[in-house]
Amino acid sequence: MTGRVHALASIAALCVTAVAPSVSAQTIETSALHLADATKIANEAVKLAADGPPVAVAVTNAEGNLVAALRMDGTSFINLEAAEQKARTAIVMASPTKQAEQALAHGDLTLLGIKGMLPMAGGVPILLDGNVVGGIGVSGREPVEDDALAVKAGQVFGKGPKTAR
C-alpha cells in the first residue's frame, strides 16, 4: 500500500509541475498604480482640502487594496474607513460613487448587497489608458465636496489621464 501511495504522490507532483508554470518565471505586464503615484494623489487631496474642514483620503490599487492613506488632524477614524470604501466602490463600478448614490436615491438597492460598498459621492476610479488602475476616496465633508476633492486629486496621476466622470 505504501508503494502505491508514493506512486500516486509522484504522479500528482508531476502533474502539478507540468501544469503550473514557475512563479519566478511569470512576468505579468499590466498598468499599475504604484506607491509613488498613490502618495502623490493622496497628498494632492490633502493639499486641496487645506482651506476647509479636514478629510481622510484613501488610494487603492485596481484590486481594491489600500496603497496610500492620509487622515488630516481632526478627522475621525471612521472617515478613513469610509474613504477606503468609496475608493473600492469606484473601482467595482468603474465610475464615480456619486452615480451609485444617485442610483440608491432612485430606489436601486443592488449595491447594498455587496460587502464593502459605499454608495456615497467622494470616490472616483483612477484611469490609465482607459483602464481602471485604482481608486481614490475622500471623506470628511459633504459628499459633493468629497467628490470634488477626489476628482481634482485624481487628475494629478501620471501625465494627466482623466479620472472617470
Cα shape: globular
The low-confidence parts are 5-29, 159-165
Strand residue content: 15-25%
Q: What structural class should be given to the helix and strand makeup?
A: alpha+beta
Largest sheet: 4 strands, antiparallel
Distance between the termini: 65 Å
Counted beta strands:
4
Helix content: 40-55%
Using only CA atoms, what is the Rg? Answer: 21 Å
Strands, helices and their partners?
Elements: H1 2-19, H2 35-49, E1 56-61, E2 66-71, H3 77-93, H4 97-105, E3 123-128, E4 131-139, H5 143-154
Antiparallel strand pairs: 1-2, 1-4, 3-4
Helix pairs in contact: 2-5
Question: How would you describe the overall organization of this protein?
Answer:
The chain has helices at 2-19, 35-49, 77-93, 97-105, 143-154; strands spanning 56-61, 66-71, 123-128, 131-139. With 165 residues, it is of the alpha+beta class. The chain has five helices and four strands; from the N terminus they run ααββααββα. Helix content is 43%, strand content 16%. Helix 2 crosses helix 5. It is globular, with a radius of gyration of 21 Å. Strands 2-1-4-3 form a four-stranded antiparallel beta sheet.
